[in-house]
User: Fold this.
Amino acid sequence: MTELVLKTNLFDVLRANFPKDRTATALILSNGSRVSYGELENQSGKMANKISNVGARAGDRVLVQVDKTPNSLALYLACLRAGVIIVPLNTAYGKVELDYFIDDAQPTLIVCEPSSPLLEKKPNKKADFVVLSLDGNGEGTLLDGFSSLTSDFETSKRGGNQTAALLYTSGTTGKPKGAMITHDNLISNAITLKKSWGFTKDDILLHALPTFHVHGLFVATNTAMMSGCQIQFLAKFNLDEVLEFLPSATVMMGVPTFYTRLLSDDRFDKDLCSNLRLFVSGSAPLLADTFRSFHLRTGHKVLERYGMTETSMITSNPLTGDRVAGSVGQPLPDITVRIVDPMGKSLTTNAVGAIEVSGPNVFEGYWRNLEKTVSEFCSDGFFKTGDIGLIDEKGFLHIIGRDKDMIISGGLNIYPKEVEEFIDQLFGVQETAVIGLPHRDFGEGVVAIVVRNSETCTSEFVINGCGDGLASFKCPKVVLFVDQLPRNAMGKVEKAKLREMYSKALDC
Assistant:
């Protein structure tokens, strides 16, 4: 196994762990076709040459908003090889959101679906970029002229503590912030997870996660490629497909929603999981009830772990040994987690406080936002996660809540301020408070509490209005109308009180 080497490009570390026989399968698709490690490597080489040919240089940003396919994975590897900074974006983002990301990231190259409004973009004063297309069927201008391109490409010397990816993460106020994730961050986490979760070349990972965020792109994909194993590469979570391919898999990674949907189907039973050695859950809290129900149905205890966009994985329940329901486990090797009081003083066992973390997994800072970077790091280098928790007598971390109002629905981050601002501009809306409430399927669902000044402003009107301008996962599932919003002495809306008052609003 290749160990972490500082100043190394992530691609070279991954490639060193590919099977020596490059005809070995890397990806198994839902239609039964296969992509070998050699084909993935060669395709990424051609794409790296194409990226360079259109003018993207090491350190430039490449904004990617495409469907999950073998080509999209090859494009990720190509960006690493070329030393450009990949900016993966949710395919649900619309025009308003994309305008912001383009203005902030200032990409040299954008790769998107042929139907994307991005193809209509014209370079402006803030960004002079090229736009190429790539669709789910392997068509698009990114692949034009591929027959004349060589698959040989000398890996960029850009690596180590230099930025490999720029991932936008939500906050409770303001706009999304770009977290600068380095090659070293990703290398260290992939090596650690391979060891901690016992990955070998004989594994088959069932991968139904999207590849525009940390869980699907880094945690799942990097760990699997680091071990040279096969990946059952599904375009998305489809219950019938997952049930079909589970018997041949050895590991499954998912968000809690995946596991609640499996449990809702009578076909999902112990026999179907007989070949599985590990189920991993993350991106949102796994309910203790789901943990217990899953164990009763299958005999498997889901391994829950904890991470963030800015840090990738921080803690994990053990591969062997007791997995604690409601806990996200112990710190991974070389990572330190502490609980502190409001003054920054470290707290003792079982004391509730703010969670801070330090280690090779922690990002470099926020893109073009030095002020935010400084405010989110302690003087001794620990990163303030914004989460509240405690560490028990066995060293297991328990997440109690968040000191921010972030909503996590189906493993996707939603910051209320953006949704509130959008609803506030709808006709008949006076003001809005957006909160997250428990949802059996998605973990949390978006609920909008609205003060209106016109009876023509109905729940249907608000929900439809959001659907016209926001990504679907950000749209409220329920809209409630009130005469006024509760506020404290400082005039701040008391969202904790709203969550308590309407805790049953989603009735699930």
Notes: The radius of gyration is 23 Å.
